[in-house]
């Protein structure tokens, strides 16, 4: 009986988290009440307080316990082509998976300047810095293997790719549905630029590469 009760409690907690993601993504953080989350989850306000310390606690749990596909670690020793395809698939999953899409929308579109905003800002920075670091490692390995130009300015290229991906997420999440073709086209463009870098993506002759 105790096991069943523990399992039921765990399921209720997950139901509340899922309901919170849906309601926050529709109405924003400031515009969402615990009553709305309770109705969505089919529970009482008391059940929410049993599992979370109010709305901020629910938001904190959502942000800390859910990992976006775009945060997946790159497998070791991938070629540039395979690594880029891996990142592209992770981005597509982030746009198409319901929970990932809702969380991304909360952070990028629904985080009004309120008390919970610091939680969102910290989580966004964690995602951003992690993505840039994984991308830098991929580019460094590709340069070392001769797959990319040895003069590639990895910091600049990584930052440009990060800005483009952030912008794509922001734009795609404004609509009701993602646009896989738009995502693929942007990734193809970035891949082309990395393989054929413009002059301002290259380090001057004699400059040391990052990490040297």
TrEMBL record:
Residues 33-52 bind DNA. The keyword Protease does not apply. InterPro entries: DNA-bd_HTH_TetR-type_CS (IPR023772), Homeodomain-like_sf (IPR009057), HTH-type_TetR-like_transc_reg (IPR050109), HTH_TetR (IPR001647), Tet_transcr_reg_TetR-rel_C_sf (IPR036271), Tscrpt_reg_MAATS_C (IPR013572). PROSITE patterns: HTH_TETR_1 (PS01081), HTH_TETR_2 (PS50977). GO terms for molecular function: DNA-binding transcription factor activity; transcription cis-regulatory region binding. Residues 10-70 form the HTH tetR-type domain. Gene3D superfamilies: Tetracycline Repressor, domain 2. Keywords: DNA-binding, Repressor, Transcription, Transcription regulation. It comes from the Bacteria. This is TetR family transcriptional regulator. It comes from Pseudomonas saudimassiliensis.
